[in-house]
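Late entry, written up from scratch paper. The run itself happened at the end of the previous shift, but nothing got recorded in the book at the time, so transcribing now.
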Amino acid sequence: MLAFTIFAAYLATGLWLIRPVRADAKRNEHTLQVGIVGLVIAVIAVHGAGLTGGVIFNQTTGLGLADVLNIIAWLFAAIGLFAALQPGFSVLAGIVFCLSAALIGGSLALPAAVDHALTWQLKLHAVLSLIAYSFLAAGAVLAAASLIQDTQLRAARVSRLSAVLPPLLATERLLATLTTSGFVFLLLAITSGFVFVDNLFAQHLTHKSALSVGALAIFGLLVIGRQVAGWRGRRMLQLYLTGFAILVLAYFGSKIVLEFVLNRSWG
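Output as recorded:
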């Protein structure tokens, strides 16, 4: 019942924030009102407390795909709340909240996870990976929105969606922050994986590791390129989405194969 309540709260918040896309709004300044902020913070706190006690610090359980989706939904909601409080980013925050609701819905639809407990070291590695993925996934939403906006500006055609999105320069600054944060956590996750995993071949994680390192290289290149050469524009956005696609394949591709094909669990 609690999961359905959290699902409904995230979905309602997301739909409320994206109203300017459908409604006749003058500006995209629809940030969360004080009462709604308190409610959303309470929902995120309850959601986080349940995950912390029931999944992350529970030494008798592993991290099934349903748990992974649930954790990412929680991190998305926290990022969405932060974005919703920034002027001009409410619509993008609404999209993130809707994605949180979709992830919770997906976790409810999945079968029970394989009962395979993980050590605290492997759970640390898994949590670092999920934090990195959440930052970079939120960045992917920004990158996709920026590409749509850039394409329409080039064609001298502005849709309602483009009209309610923040300026490209503001989006690029936030994307740079998310990219750097995601890169740092991804580097920590990959490093901890090499330290804590005894035998990558025996655990069928070779492809996951190779793809993750490839994604890390792309995001590292983006961080350096922006800091040193001032990279920006369509090619940077396309490269970002390419790196994120590789990361999705690395984590969820291996996760699905391990859990549903090989009947094993991995964080």
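The chain has ten helices and no strands.
(Scratch paper discarded after transcription.)
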